[in-house]
Design brief:
Elements lengths: L1 H34 L6 E2 L2 H29 L2 H26 L6 H21 L9 H30 L10 H28 L2 H22 L8 E2 H43 L1 H16 L4 H26 L6 H14 L6 E6 L7 H22 L3 E9 L2 E8 L11 H16 L3 E7 L3 E7 L3
Parallel strand pairs: 3-4
Antiparallel strand pairs: 1-2, 4-5, 5-7, 6-7
Helix pairs in contact: 1-7, 2-3, 2-8, 3-4, 3-5, 4-5, 4-6, 6-7, 7-8, 8-10, 9-10, 10-11, 11-12, 12-13
């Protein structure tokens, strides 16, 4: 516990140090441009502006897609708002900045103001994501509804700014410091400041990697907006230094969200693995413990000790084997050494009375994933149990090897073989269980048998 706490504190301190360093560097650069107005902070280069807008739009689309993927994993409200925020950013850039330029015309004031309003809407959604918790109840409808609502808001904002500009008048010169633009960029700066603080607090509380990347991106967006306050320009007029910061923020978020997706998928895989192992314990160990309890109750009720004791010993031995394999199932280590040991112990126990000889051959170079180890063990266990109960066999072979470039598991016996008219439910259920377990790990299960010759079970594992 102390080691884990120290690790968390170290991660938090490292993030805080990096955040303060970034803020110091950006503040120094901002102060430099503020103290020396003659330093160039905007560039009248249409091709550069188009390239920056296109890059920001594409990275915003990528972040929106990745956050949508994260939302599909855990239905988080934060991911939904992030997906909507970056979708708004991407759509507005394509509609109000890139499309007019590619169409051969200049960006008019209504489109420029609509792009600025869209930036504010996007910042509102991203900032709100820092403070929401929980999951969406109907995730299947959430993203289409959110995108439709955002598109409608963008259409309304474009219509509203177009009408407003028409009323106020569209002057020839749209450059120069204007109070409305200064207020708009100041509002953007406040929204990104809130996002930076919000994601920073989330990271401090839960130490989720994505929150640290979002706080870093919000810091870059904050200083991009502060830079525009000194020389307010409508989107699409000139390339400014803030555009480079916006692009850098989006690129960093692509990395951060991708890492977040990997973490979310790993977390879900761990949960599924724990649930599956719990089922294994319930189906195996719990049944033997129940049998032990039943036999002990029989003794308490006066049953003959000599009759009950052998059953108790046999059940206890089986329960011990199940407990050992439960430990194997909980292990996340790769390789096949624990699996080998568990399988050999089980075979030794099965053959202790000398009624069946079992040869086990496991290729030392074969590697089995944890889920494969568990299911293959159960398949072999079920197959050997069927051989012992129904096949009247004296010899059985268990072979796990590479067969023509494919990993295969083979259980072969010299018993009576299967009769097509054999309707014993226990044997049939055993085969169904083995097929189900093979399907759960993406393996192919086949069986071949001839009466009087024997039976061969084969499992071809996934590549």
């Amino acid at each position: 516990m102390d080691a884990e706490r120290q690790k968390n504190e170290s991660a938090l301190h490292s993030w805080l140090a990096g955040e303060f360093l970034l803020i110091a560097l950006l503040s120094a650069a901002l102060a430099l441009w503020g103290a020396y107005p003659s330093l160039k902070s905007s560039f009248d280069l249409p091709q550069l502006l188009l390239a920056l807008d296109t890059a920001i739009a594409l990275t915003s689309v990528l972040v929106a897609v990745l956050t949508g993927v994260r939302f599909s994993v855990d239905s988080s409200r934060m991911d939904l708002l992030l997906c909507a925020g970056f979708s708004v950013a991407a759509i507005s850039i394509f509609a109000f900045e890139i499309a007019p330029t590619l169409g051969g015309s200049e960006i008019n004031k209504p489109e420029a103001w609509a792009a600025l309003v869209a930036r504010i809407l996007s910042a509102c959604l991203i900032g709100a994501a820092a403070f929401v918790r929980g999951q969406v109840r109907r995730p299947d409808r959430a993203i289409p509804t959110a995108l439709a609502a955002c598109s409608l808001v963008l259409l309304v904002s474009w219509s509203g700014t177009r009408a407003l500009v028409h009323v106020v008048g569209n002057s020839e010169s749209s450059s120069g410091p204007e109070l409305p633009m200064t207020i708009a960029y100041a509002l953007l700066a406040l929204l990104y400041l809130g996002a930076m603080v919000g994601f920073g607090l989330r990271f401090q509380r839960w130490l989720e990697d994505l929150d640290s990347w979002l706080a870093l991106a919000a810091t870059l967006w904050l200083f991009s907006s502060l830079n525009s306050i000194f020389k307010p320009l409508l989107p699409g007029e000139q390339a400014v230094l803030g555009d480079f910061l916006r692009l850098l923020a989006c690129v960093l978020l692509v990395v951060g969200v991708w890492r977040g997706i990997r973490a979310a998928e790993f977390g879900r895989a761990v949960s599924e693995e724990r649930a599956r192992v719990a089922g294994e314990i319930h189906d195996g160990l719990a049944q033997y413990l129940f049998a032990l309890s039943t036999h002990l109750s029989m003794l308490r009720d006066g049953a003959d000790l000599e009759t009950v004791l052998p059953r108790l010993e046999e059940t206890a031995a089986l329960a011990q084997q199940e407990a050992r394999f439960a430990v194997l199932a909980l292990s996340s280590a790769g390789g096949s050494a624990p699996f080998d040991a568990a399988l050999h112990r089980y075979v030794e126990f099965l053959c202790a009375d000398g009624k069946l000889e079992v040869d086990v051959e496991i290729d030392p170079d074969i590697r089995l994933a944890p889920d494969e180890q568990i299911e293959i063990f159960r398949i072999v266990q079920e197959g050997l149990a069927n051989v012992r109960k129904h096949a009247n066999a004296t010899w059985t072979e268990v072979k796990i090897a590479d067969n023509g470039g494919k990993r295969t598991v083979i259980v072969r016996d010299d018993g009576d073989g299967l009769d097509e008219n054999d309707n014993r439910p226990t044997a049939g259920q055993g085969l169904k269980n083995m097929r189900r377990r093979a399907d759960s790990i993406g393996a192919d299960f086949t069986i071949s048998s001839k009466p009087g010759v024997g039976t061969t079970l084969a499992v071809a594992l996934r590549a």
